[in-house]
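Risk mitigation, structural track. In case the binding assays with guanosine-5'-diphosphate fail to produce interpretable data, a predicted complex structure has been prepared as a fallback.
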Amino acid sequence: ETWEPPEPLHRVKGDNYAPNNPNSDRINATLLSLVRNKEAKDLVMSMQDLERTWNHKFNYPWTFINDEPFTQEFKDITRANTKANITYLTIPKEHWEVPSWINLDLMHESANILEEQSVQYAHMTSYHQMCRWNSGLFYKHPALQETQYYWRVEPNVHFFCDVDYDVFRYMQDHNKTYGFTISLYDSPDTVKTLWPETLKFLAAGNSHLMSQNNAMDWLVDKSARPEHNTKANGYSTCHFWSNFEIADMNFFRSPAYEAYFEHLDRAGGFFYERWGDAPVHSIALGLFEDKNKIHWFKDIGYQHIPFFNCPNSPKCHGCITGRLTDGEAFLNKEDCRPNWFKYVGNEWDIGKSSAVAG
Ligand code: GDP
Ligand code: MN
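Fallback model:
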């Protein structure tokens, strides 16, 4: 088996990735984390794993973002855990607050209904704000305007495998827009009107925005989970799990995505339902991007409770090969990667057969 994707892979040679080398081989990219002050310790766990397995070699800068100013304590503890540059940002108020067109009474009534359906975080307005911000606002922060690629990192995630090439350059050199590790079915009750709104958007003179090589058939697939597709009104609910993303912000800055987000934002489902940034990103990628520009980072061992991506590679330590979850057994059925491979193919299978042949 192969443990790395195909060449070209950009590696450390001499001081080409030294933290303060002004002519380093780093491209325009940052490790990006939306995080609260009280999550500092959990964030440090994620930082330590990512620094150990990858970033101590490449020294990409970290960017921390918060809806409140970061405390000195937060700055000190994060500063102590990397040699790379760090930027601390506060979100502009107008990017975070509940938009003026949202009816607060309707929002609270809707949360009651969601709660009856056992939707997590139904009444937590900040969670809805976070999902909206991650859907359509993060890349609009004034301090990120010159930044192209990001790797999203959450508090309390884990990385298990040594990665010995520059993943940002991989994205650029191989013409990739979006990289994921895990994809899952979503709770249909959180996105009941997301697909109908999407179809409305396309029907309102926007269908020309779709990619010639889109993944529509993946979005509407109902073979594995017909009941999800039915409850979500035509969307399979399969999505890239967005607590991990390595992606090109220019996709989100494109006129197609901009128009799509604007439509969804006006429709109000970030607050009247609980649309997640994961299904929103995934639907947009499936419609507006060439499906071959989406990459599965099989080689990046990753955990966000309760799911893992754990490759069978000698480069990985501390996770059990092939295991998706250490939670309840029923969670194994949440994996929808096979669905993606069915429609788009699995680049790693090609790697495997050529490795066998060669
Ligand atoms: P879950 O993984 O869906 O359970 O959601 P999380 O609680 O992990 O939130 C997702 C990400 O958004 C994490 O990086 C959190 O630190 C961050 N986050 C969530 N809510 C807030 C908030 O109100 N303020 C800030 N600054 N970050 C938040
Ligand atoms: Mn999380």
